[in-house]
Each structure stands twice: as structure tokens, then as C-alpha cells.
């Protein structure tokens, strides 16, 4: 038997059903017995949504009102009634089993499964298998329109059935017409219809992905014929940093993700960067996933874009003998441990975890992460055979082993492969973006160096936090910050890493800030504050990593021909000639949030030179991950006094200094001098100082030396 099912939400209708996250408000169904061609009672149930506001399209198409829906039952009660009424109708027809049949995939995959997952109740088994009437119709009538172009009305028109929807209530006409279409298909004696139902995976399958090859000693070897189709992969961006593969699978509930198909992306320090690549079983599932663009995971919306199989392979495609052996045990829960003492042994880790959370295979269920030279990194991965053992292990988060507290997180097979193979290689896992084209002229204040611990490090900042948020977080201590002493740290993709360094006026001030602000809340996250030295801060800003045990060198060992990418994002003073102030529209200088006023709070001008003869602006530039987000530059306004002084000051030409050169990569081969000058229109050149570096014709020299008008780009 079939149960013909139709539904509607409070938002979009038709091809966009479920794409706007609106809740279900209507279910209509009827039992159809295929052998006897008998039908049961037609049922219609309204569903009370949490948000009773209806879209204009919903009001027009369905005729429903918020008042009527307010008297209905919630979704969980309606689904209980559905099961009871279907069982009763089947008993009357002498049947006991059934399969759902819906008009397309959207109602089951994009509405019912995501909504019930968010509301934390389970769907019955019948919702994990269904027939897509459009596909069955196209199988029976191959000359009809393509599956994606089919609707109930077009199928009825193809068969010559009545298509006047106004004769019946909304939903009732749709179900009656679907039943008539099914009976017409049965009369054609089509043998291949209603034999292979669509399935919805009830659980995401974890495990390693091999994709047709292994990595042995970083050498590519052919093993199987499987490949990754470009039409099956998406990139999810904006994920909470603590989200696991299971959380991502839950976000895409209702869609079938390939086994081991969730790959969390890491930054150069091996930390999650808020992105993941997800591989689906086919292109149809991928296309449905793209419709969940800007759907919510908790309070955050997630961006969903197309990605390629090549990108997925870079993240999840390789493994070594050691990793392959570790991941060979399937259906295991993986936990990542971070901050282990470098002297920790397998026995120490097993003892730390204890008898209440036994590790699968004992020592074989542990994998220590090491640098290429064999030194331990302080990270390890652990296998557990069930969720209960993993939960017991996670309860030990930040407990002490030796003299260090240990962090524990959920992990994935793809993360194991990335960290073990790619984390400490000199080549970044994801190529860094080119140096920003915004010119950075060295500030009059240099970053202090030395072993004096007069700096603090902020870790765990919200990714949306800006300099003004940090100043507000610091409170009274803002008066003790050196001018231009706030430095944001960006990851390899040019996005905020959650870290920042602040230069204080003395080591005592840094100590007091670390004591007062450690684990203080910023927005909805607590921020860790540690005292450090200028040397340690410089090391991180130049690409190294700062661990509890000391410093790790920058990943790139090659000499840089231009400043590192993140040098452009430091909170340095960009010196702009006074003439530029005349062209600054207020739209480019939005007012920043004002820190909460306190008795000791200094004025905003504290962070700028007292005698401001030039315009200083702190800026942060955000570069997007692929594929489509626009590049935006956010300016933090200078104090009005500094702007006024800059507008009236006499401009003194700024001579190029070391680091004032920029290197351009990716130029078209036919690029000439004129195109390059046009590209940098609005910026000041100093060709006379580079005579020994580039050969210029007299014509080019005259163009370069001609007076330039400063404009705001």
C-alpha cells in the first residue's frame, strides 16, 4: 500500500518548499491499496507552528490564516495522529505495511526531517523510505517533461485529468489528483514503477575516505577506481568552531551524505576555521543541500556554496599507513586530545582516561601527532567504541595530566588525516591568499621586541569581534595600552583566527590585565587572556605559533619578497597624506561602537598621537573564502581632532622605506605598464627610488613622476 502525502509550510511553495526554513502548517494524506485499487479516508490536518506569521504566497495559495492555525495541534501530536489514522485505514483494507508517496523530494527531505531534527523529536521509520511520484511518472511516461520540471498540475495535464484547483480545498485537490495519477499509471501496466523507493539515511556513517588512492610516504598510489564527482561536494562556511561531523550531518538532516563525507577544514595551526567540505551521494542531494544556504545551526546562519572534488581531496583524500591502520576500525567515535605533555606516553593517556571510558584496542586506539622530525606536538586522537564512552571522556575536558590541563574535542576521520599529514608541513593545507593590494606604509610606532612580558594574548575571541570590541572588553585598562598596540591575528584564509595581541605600557600592567580579564565574557564567549613578551607576539604575527610550552617557527622557510599576508591586517597606522582627508566621504568612516563609559575611561584619541599632523586609521581587511562573498574593508574612524589636524597640515612627502614595495602575482601575460598604473590608480608611487630595480623608458618615467590626484577607492 501507498500513503499519498502532501504538505505545505508557512513560507515558500512549489520548487522552493523548505528553502526558507519555515515550519510545516499543513499535512494531507490518503491510503491507496495498489492491488485492489481501493483508497482509504482522506485526512487533512493543520499544524500549529511556533511562528504563526504566514508569507504572502502562503496566504494566497493556501487560504489559511494565523487564527485558524493557532487552534491546531503541534507537529509532534499531528505525526502521532498520522500514524494512528494510517494504521486504522490499513486495517480496514486488510493491509499492514505501507510506503509513503510524495510529490517530489522536498516535503520529506527539506521540511519534515530538518524541522523534527531542530525540535529534537524522532520521525517514525516510515519517513526514511518513500516514492517520488515525479520519478515514477517519468519512468512510466519517458516522453513527459524532465523530473525537475514536473508538478502535480503538469502530470495531470499530460494525462488529460481535471486541473481546476478551485474545486477543492488546498491540499485536498493535490492528494486526489496524485491518487488519480497513480491509478492511471497502474492502468498502463508499467512494470518498473513503485519498486525502488527513495531512502533517507538515518545516521551519518563515519570512517576514512580513500577515493581511489592512498598516500604511502606521501607518494600517490592507485588502489581503487572510485573518484569524487565535482557535482557532489559543497562548502559550508560559518560553522561554530566546536561543531563536529555529527553536528554538520544534523544540519543536513534528510540528505544522504557519503560515508566519511564530512571534512572539517583546519588553519595552519591545526585549528578548525569554521568551514567544512561535505560530499553527498549524488548531485541531486548536493543541489538540495545548496538550498539550505543561510539556514541556521543554533543561532548562527551557515553559508553553503558549490565546491569541487579536488578541494575535497585536498582536505580528506590522503592517508598514511599509520593513519589507515588507526582508522581501519569503523563506526568508532573519535576524540581529539590537545595540550598533552611532550613526555606523555600511551600508558599516561590510558590512565588519564580511566576505566570508565576504555579505548578501543587499548594502545592501538591511540594516535599521537608528531612533527616531521619526530617531536611530539601535544596532540593525540583516541578511538571509542560507543557514544557512552566518548561522553565519559569529554567530561575530562581541562582535567590535569602531569602539570598541564588537557582539552578534549570531538573529531573526524578527515581531521585525523589533515592533522597528521598536513598540519606541520611547510606548505599550507589551503594556499594563502595574495597579499592585499591596500598599501601599508610603516607606522611611526614599531612593535616592541624582547623578553619583557609587557604584552597580553587574547584567545577565543568571537570571529566577529573588532578592535572596538576588544577595547570595550579591556575596560579601565584601555588607558594602559600603547598607541596602536592592538594587533589582530588572521588565519591562512585572511579571516579572524580568534586571537589578538595587545601591547601594554609595562609588564605590571600586562599582569594585571591577564588576572582581571582572564575568562571574562565577550558577547557569548569567554576569552582567555595570557601574559606574554614582545618576542613571542612578533613570532606569532610573523607566522609562527605560540604554544603553552614555547614557540613554533613559521610554516614557510623561504625568504619573503614582500611582507607576510597578515602584516597588512595588524592594527598599524596607515599614514595617509593630508590631501586624502579632503576626499574621505563619511560613508567610508562609519561611527564605531563606543565602549561603555567608566570613570577612568580615557577619551578615544588616546590611541592616536597627541600631535596628529597626519590622518591615522586603524583598519582590518577581510578576504573571503571561495567562491562568491565580496571583499569588504571596514574602517575604524580616527578621532575628530586627528582628522581636523590632518586636513589643515602641510603634507610632507613620505619616502619609501624597507617593506614599502609590493609584489604582484597572477598578472596576465600581456599586462603592460599602463594596466599596472591603472590598477594602482589613486596611490602614490616613488619611481626615483627604484631606478636600480626596474628599467623605465622616458615615457613611462614621465607618467610615473606626473602629479597624482588622490582619490578614495
TrEMBL record:
One of its GO terms (cellular component) is nucleus. It is found in: Nucleus. GO terms for molecular function: RNA binding. The keyword RNA-binding applies. GO terms for biological process: mRNA processing; RNA splicing. SUPFAM superfamilies: Ribonuclease H-like, RNA-binding domain, RBD. Residues 232-309, 333-413 form the RRM domain. Its main location: nucleus. It comes from the Eukaryota. Keywords: mRNA processing, mRNA splicing, Nucleus, Repeat, RNA-binding. The keyword RNA-binding applies. Belongs to the ESRP family. This is Epithelial splicing regulatory protein 2. The lineage of its organism: Eukaryota, Metazoa, Chordata, Craniata, Vertebrata. The gene is Esrp2.
Amino acid at each position: 500500500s501507498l500513503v499519498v502525502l502532501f504538505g505545505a509550510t508557512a513560507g515558500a511553495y512549489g520548487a522552493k518548499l523548505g528553502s526558507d526554513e519555515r515550519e510545516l502548517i499543513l499535512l494531507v494524506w490518503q491510503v491507496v491499496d495498489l492491488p485492489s485499487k481501493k483508497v482509504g479516508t482522506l485526512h487533512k490536518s493543520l499544524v500549529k507552528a511556533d511562528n504563526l506569521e504566514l508569507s504572502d504566497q502562503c496566504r494566497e495559495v493556501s487560504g489559511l490564516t494565523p487564527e485558524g492555525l493557532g487552534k491546531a495541534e503541534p507537529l509532534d501530536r499531528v505525526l502521532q495522529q498520522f500514524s494512528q489514522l494510517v494504521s486504522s485505514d490499513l486495517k480496514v483494507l486488510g493491509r499492514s505495511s505501507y510506503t509513503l508517496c510524495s510529490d517530489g523530494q522536498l516535503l520529506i527531505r527539506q521540511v519534515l526531517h530538518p524541522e523534527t531534527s531542530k525540535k529534537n523529536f524522532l520521525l517514525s521509520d516510515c519517513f526514511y523510505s518513500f516514492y517520488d511520484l515525479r520519478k515514477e511518472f517519468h519512468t512510466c511516461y519517458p516522453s513527459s517533461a524532465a523530473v525537475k520540471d514536473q508538478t502535480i498540475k503538469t502530470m495531470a495535464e499530460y494525462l488529460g485529468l481535471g486541473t481546476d484547483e478551485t474545486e477543492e480545498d488546498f491540499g485536498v485537490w493535490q492528494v486526489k489528483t496524485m491518487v488519480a495519477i497513480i491509478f492511471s499509471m497502474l492502468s498502463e501496466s508499467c512494470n518498473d514503477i513503485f519498486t525502488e523507493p527513495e531512502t533517507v539515511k538515518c545516521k551519518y556513517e563515519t570512517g576514512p575516505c580513500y577515493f581511489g588512492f592512498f598516500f604511502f610516504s606521501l607518494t600517490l598510489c592507485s588502489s581503487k577506481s572510485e573518484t569524487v564527482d565535482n557535482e557532489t561536494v559543497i562548502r559550508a562556511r560559518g560553522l561554530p568552531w566546536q561543531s563536529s561531523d555529527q553536528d554538520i550531518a544534523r544540519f543536513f538532516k534528510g540528505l544522504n551524505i557519503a560515508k566519511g563525507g564530512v571534512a572539517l577544514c583546519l588553519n595552519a595551526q591545526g585549528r578548525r576555521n569554521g568551514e567544512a567540505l561535505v560530499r553527498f551521494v549524488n548531485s541531486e542531494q548536493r543541489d538540495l543541500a545548496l538550498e539550505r544556504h543561510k539556514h541556521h545551526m543554533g543561532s548562527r546562519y551557515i553559508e553553503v556554496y558549490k565546491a569541487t572534488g579536488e578541494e575535497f581531496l585536498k582536505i580528506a583524500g590522503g592517508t598514511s599507513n599509520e593513519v589507515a591502520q588507526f582508522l581501519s576500525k569503523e563506526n568508532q567515535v573519535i576524540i581529539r586530545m590537545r595540550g598533552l605533555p611532550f613526555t606523555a606516553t600511551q600508558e599516561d593517556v590510558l590512565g588519564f582516561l580511566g576505566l570508565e571510558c576504555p579505548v578501543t584496542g587499548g594502545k592501538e586506539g591511540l594516535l599521537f601527532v608528531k612533527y616531521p622530525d619526530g617531536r611530539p606536538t601535544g596532540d593525540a586522537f583516541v578511538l571509542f567504541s560507543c557514544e557512552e564512552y566518548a561522553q565519559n571522556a569529554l567530561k575530562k575536558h581541562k582535567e590535569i595530566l602531569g602539570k598541564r590541563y588537557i582539552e578534549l574535542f570531538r573529531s573526524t576521520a578527515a581531521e585525523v588525516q589533515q592533522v597528521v599529514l598536513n598540519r606541520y608541513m611547510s606548505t599550507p593545507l589551503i594556499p594563502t591568499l595574495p597579499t592585499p593590494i591596500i598599501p601599508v606604509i610603516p607606522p611611526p610606532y614599531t612593535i616592541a621586541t624582547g623578553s619583557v612580558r609587557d604584552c597580553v594574548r587574547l584567545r577565543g575571541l568571537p570571529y566577529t569581534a573588532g578592535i572596538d570590541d576588544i577595547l570595550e572588553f579591556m575596560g579601565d585598562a584601555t588607558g594602559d595600552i600603547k598607541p596602536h598596540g592592538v594587533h589582530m591575528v588572521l588565519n591562512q584564509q585572511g579571516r579572524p583566527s580568534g586571537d589578538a595581541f595587545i601591547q601594554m605600557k609595562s609588564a605590571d600592567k600586562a599582569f594585571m590585565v591577564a588576572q582581571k580579564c582572564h575568562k571574562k565574557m565577550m558577547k557569548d564567549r569567554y576569552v582567555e587572556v595570557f601574559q606574554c613578551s614582545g618576542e613571542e607576539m612578533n613570532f606569532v604575527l610573523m607566522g609562527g605559533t605560540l604554544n603553552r610550552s614555547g614557540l613554533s617557527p613559521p610554516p614557510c622557510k623561504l625568504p619573503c619578497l614582500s611582507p607576510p599576508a597578515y602584516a597588512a591586517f595588524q592594527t598599524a597606522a596607515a599614514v595617509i597624506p593630508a590631501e586624502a582627508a579632503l576626499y574621505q566621504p563619511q560613508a567610508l568612516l562609519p561611527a564605531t561602537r563606543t565602549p561603555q563609559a567608566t570613570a577612568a575611561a580615557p577619551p578615544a584619541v588616546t590611541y592616536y598621537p597627541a600631535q596628529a599632523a597626519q590622518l591615522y586609521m586603524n583598519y582590518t581587511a577581510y578576504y573571503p573564502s571561495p567562491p562568491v562573498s565580496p571583499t569588504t574593508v571596514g574602517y575604524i574612524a580616527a578621532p575628530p581632532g586627528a582628522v581636523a589636524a590632518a586636513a589643515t597640515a602641510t603634507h610632507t612627502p613620505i619616502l619609501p622605506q624597507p617593506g614599502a614595495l609590493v609584489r604582484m602575482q597572477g598578472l596576465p601575460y600581456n599586462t603592460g605598464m599602463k594596466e599596472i598604473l591603472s590598477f594602482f590608480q589613486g596611490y602614490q608611487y616613488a619611481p626615483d627610488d627604484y631606478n636600480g630595480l626596474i628599467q623605465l623608458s622616458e615615457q613611462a618615467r614621465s607618467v610615473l613622476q606626473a602629479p597624482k590626484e588622490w582619490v578614495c577607492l
